[in-house]
């Protein structure tokens, strides 16, 4: 197979690798599209503990099953499916036994501790493969739903009941979750990098009630806020933006250090929580919501071999919505 490989230094390298074969309980996909997530950038930047090298990144995979490993009965050849970040859970640790597989002590992650979808073929554990039968969108448009959408959805649920919701960072996850929150009836306030008028304009066209700089306070107090930007300095800003009893959810896997802040920002029963990974139930819930809410990610597609250019554009904030690789 053809793949873009992370070998621990520099840019991704284009390589021919042996075709992977599915083991027991696994399936193989012909990859049709794979989104690029902020986590892929954290991997390349060394922000995460090493997950094994060389590695094929990519955990927003849309593909068609072309091989079934032994014991797989509930998926079929030719079926269009998606694969996301959580690739495996142990089923035995206290978290798994309590239904919190997202917190598993011995998990595996697609494109991080296992090879992912920046390739023409990918192998995945069947338990963590999601049928996409109900979603009538192009493969490239579906791809960002598999992480930005799924973990975004978990963070939206974690935000608790709200009428006024703040979103800090308006990339792949932000623009998908704005659509989900609007469908739920929330008013959404979007905070972007200072001066990013294009992102603010984009948020308003998707129905944001207000869009402005992350250095500005919102025009009225918020019930909850979700941080998608990996910027620790936004935590005190978001706490200052929510009302008493409000909640701030940190949705990224990595964030720069949070600066010291006065206790008055947390006082008043404000809550600060993080979201880690996702469960299969999150995935199935969100994939049911997508057609009901009419969620439609905006994507910029790049050929697989242009992965490094796509990553550069993403870093530079030049991608509107989500970046997706097409083999
Ligand atoms: Zn991701
Ligand atoms: Zn476990």
From TrEMBL:
Single GO cellular component term: cytoplasm
Main enzyme class: oxidoreductase
Entry keyword set: Metal-binding, Oxidoreductase, Zinc
A UniProt-annotated Pfam family: ADH_N
Spans annotated as Disordered: 1-23
Start and end residues of each Enoyl reductase (ER) domain: 8-325
CDD domains: CAD2 (cd08298)
EC number: 1.1.1.1
Any one GO molecular function term: alcohol dehydrogenase (NAD+) activity
Domain of life according to the entry: Bacteria
InterPro entries attached to this UniProt entry: ADH-like_N, ADH_Zn_CS, ADH_Zn_typ-2, ER, GroES-like_sf, NAD(P)-bd_dom_sf
Keyword Oxidoreductase attributed: yes
Cofactor(s) annotated in UniProt: Zn(2+)
Family: Belongs to the zinc-containing alcohol dehydrogenase family.
Protein name according to UniProt: alcohol dehydrogenase
Gene source species: Nitrospirillum amazonense
Lineage, uppermost ranks: Bacteria, Pseudomonadati, Pseudomonadota, Alphaproteobacteria, Rhodospirillales
């Amino acid at each position: 197979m053809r793949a873009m490989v992370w070998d621990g230094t520099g840019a991704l390298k284009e390589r021919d690798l042996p075709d992977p074969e599915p083991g027991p309980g696994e399936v193989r996909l012909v990859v049709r599209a794979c989104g690029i997530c902020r986590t892929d950038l954290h991997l390349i930047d060394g922000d995460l503990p090493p997950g094994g090298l060389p590695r094929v990144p990519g955990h927003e995979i849309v593909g068609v099953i072309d091989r079934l490993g032994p014991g797989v009965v509930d998926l079929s050849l030719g079926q269009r499916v998606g694969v996301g970040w959580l690739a495996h859970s142990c089923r035995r640790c206290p978290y798994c036994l309590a239904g919190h597989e997202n917190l598993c002590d011995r998990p595996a992650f697609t494109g991080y501790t296992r090879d992912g979808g920046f390739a023409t073929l990918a192998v995945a554990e069947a338990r963590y493969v999601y049928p996409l039968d109900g979603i009538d969108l192009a493969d490239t448009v579906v791809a960002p739903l598999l992480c930005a959408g799924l973990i975004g959805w978990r963070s939206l649920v974690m935000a608790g009941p709200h009428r006024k919701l703040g979103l800090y960072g308006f990339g792949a996850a932000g623009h998908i979750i704005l659509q989900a929150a609007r469908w739920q009836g929330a008013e959404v306030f979007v905070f972007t990098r200072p001066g990013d008028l294009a992102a603010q304009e984009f948020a308003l066209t998707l129905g944001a009630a207000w869009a402005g700089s992350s250095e500005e306070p919102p025009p009225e107090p918020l019930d909850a806020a979700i941080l998608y930007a990996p910027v620790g300095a936004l935590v005190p800003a978001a706490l200052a933006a929510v009302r008493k009893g409000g909640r701030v959810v940190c949705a990224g896997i990595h964030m720069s250090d949070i600066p010291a802040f006065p206790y008055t920002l947390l006082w008043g029963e404000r809550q600060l929580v993080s979201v880690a990974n996702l469960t299969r139930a999150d995935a199935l819930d969100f994939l049911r919501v997508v057609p009901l809410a009419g969620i439609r990610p905006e994507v910029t597609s790049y050929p697989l071999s242009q992965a490094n250019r796509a990553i550069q554009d993403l870093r530079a904030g030049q991608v509107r919505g989500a970046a997706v690789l097409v083999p």
